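User: Show me a protein chain along with its predicted structure.
Assistant: Here is one chain, sequence first, then structure tokens.
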Amino acid sequence: MNSDLPLSEEELNELEQFLLTEGVPDECMDIAMLDGFLVGLIIGPETLLPSQWLPAIWGETDDQPMNWASLDQMQRIVSLVMRMYNDRVHDLQEDIDDFEPLLYVDNQDGQSRPILDDWCLGFILAIQLDPESWQPLIAAEPEAEGGGLLTPMLLYGTEEGWAQLKENPELKERHQDFADAISPCVIGIRDYWLPHRKAASTYRRESAKVGRNDLCPCGSGKKFKNCCGSAEKLH
């Protein structure tokens, strides 16, 4: 498998179905949340290693660890996630004007309504991995540089935002406006942080197969057998 290739529709569906299986922790991200999470990582102020963010995808807890069915399964899914990450890096660097969030859609009464909560929550989870670095943008006044760029994400991805939507019918009526605002907000956030990023690029390629003595694909710097491939991580 060529890790330089973007995910095919079949592979994206494969990853989506895995994230929804009963065997994963309850807090495991779905594909829309994963997309928001990866976009937040890519356009944020700092470059985070995969070892810092891969565990958040699975939603592991002490009561619900991520137990892989096999080494091959873990390699396959991690490879798909990394290729999706690389796809989004390319989109946000080379095809930024064509960027669109990957959203679920609610079809009722013949009308399609984009579901924003999952994607925005994923974006907020990316922020929460490094909240101190994000603080200047979070605290920016509406009239200041970057002010308001996080509005859709904060509104649909936080408990405070959900409370506002519940209490304010006018906000709920602007649902499509907020959906349409996500793409330009993402572009604005990327441009806001671009001068501040410590690394020129987060783009990296992962091999399809990882040997027991190779470095772990999560980026921890440990050998695979001593990290994600350790016995306690597998059935």
